[in-house]
Specification:
Number of strands: 7
Strand content: under 5%
Structural class: mainly alpha
Shape: globular
CATH class of one domain: Mainly Alpha
CATH topology of one domain: Neurolysin, domain 3
Amino acid sequence: MIEEKKSVQNSAPEWNLSDLYKSLDDKNIQSDLLEIEKLKGKFVEEYQGAVLKLEAHSLLEAIQLYENIGEKSAKLATFAYLHKAKDSSDSSIAIFYQNIMDKISKVESEILFFSLELNKFEESKIQQFMDEERNLKRYQSWFRKIFKFKKYNLSDEAEKVLYLKSTTSSSMLVRLYDETHADLKYPFSDENGERMLNNSEIFHYLTSQKQEVRKSTSRSISTVLQENSKNLTMIMNMVAKDKLIEDDLRGFKDVLSSRNLVNDIEDSVVTHLIDTVKTFYSKIPHRYYKLKAKWLGVEKMNHWDRNAPLPNSSNRVFSWNESRDIVLKSYNNFSSILHDEAKKFFDSGWIDAKITEGKTSGAFCHPSIPSSHPYMLMNFQGKVYDVMTLSHELGHCVHYMLSKHNGYLANDIPLTFAETASVFGEQLTFRYLLNLVGDDKQEKKSLIAKKVEDMINTVFRQIAFCDFEYRVHTKRKESELSNDDICKIWMDVQKEVLGGAFNITDDYKPYWSYISHFIHAPFYVYSYAFGDCLVNSLYTYYLTNGHNFSDKYLELLKAGGTMHHKELLKPFNMDLENKDFFSKGLLLISELIDELEKLENEE
């Protein structure tokens, strides 16, 4: 089996970043840095202190130059970040990344005045300019997002200081966290002997068929995380404090509000999402996990059994080519446009899926820049989960491909809607796989159960993560938190979401410290739950309005970040402020559990 897994991993592709730059030593890197510096100098000379004096056409010219600087900078940042994600353990890459980010941050700090001076315009004046100069309408959504931050902006000098200091505060804490985890090695032993595994490799064994392997894996993870708890606790405290300082300076009263503003979503909608999901704890995760405990033949599961495969479930390992074909066919069954855009990533070397030393764990799609294309990273091991992850991240990639025509400034997709295409892609692939198993009840049961678990992880686990962050960040207002303080909060929220079907022992306490989103982007996590509930509602609509759904859906993706959610969802007669909106999305998960219970009764 281990040889089969190695073969699958070796067949997975590694990306080719040459569409950005040929190498870290590419001479175009230095020439682009010089060009950015030149453009920045021109921009500062012509526009600093003069923005309010601009007329419609000269404002358009200023924005176009500003956008050009931003996209050139983003190209460099993308290249540096993707190299770091590929190998965080290489000190030369870390230095290259930091040097690039330092140079870009300096440039961005010097042109920061532009958005701040723009914010001093009356919105009616900008509307007048757009009426006079039709090409300005391209930036309408960007103007709207600038103006919504108006009441939270500080002085120009304070904004510049905060921006510059971020490179030695929040950004440096992210780097410290990533490099710490990249260096972690977990002891592991099985019938193939003893060895040391990295992050991506060790967590794979929590899905082993053998309980003893899952147990020993969990204990190994716990031991290593606990050994590093001093630094990881310090990082969490500093991230929370850094955010609290800035929130307080800007006047945000609630620890969630700044994230909600960035996500272009109202506080009330997010609160409603969180409260609704919590009311379904007993109806979905608790209910499902009781079923799973029964299938595993135990009264209570241990926390390391959460992702255990079901007895008699398929242990099939998918090759990379099989996974590619499954995802592309499932996309094509819905839309040839989705298929064609996704296929480009396989054909062009834009995916990195091989597990390698120092590579970041998990998966992501990096949007890169509109004049280029996104890049996708994952750690492929050939399980059904990996097929679904491939589908998920390709959804993100296709979303960015379809919306990149909006340009660098206007195509900033909020996190809440950034999960739409990815989760919808997963749903398409799940339904395709379900059709493949046909009347095989055991395979069908296994596949549905895995999908339910994925949805529980996407919705309920992420809301529990958000709850954990909320409690940590709120308590951090009072004082620094000890490792015990943080672990207690973690255990409390995990017991609430997992319910009585689990025996959650103390060795689960340090597991909070491997969730990178807590450090990379506080409160990012609720966007997964938002996206899943939204897609469940969209998919339900699709089942009853299939004749014209795909066209509407593609238009939603093409809009990118240019519309508010009220405009985006209007063609589907959906309103996030409807008190039943999120409940309807959660009912789709409940219906899958109904199907599992039906299959159980038929056995």
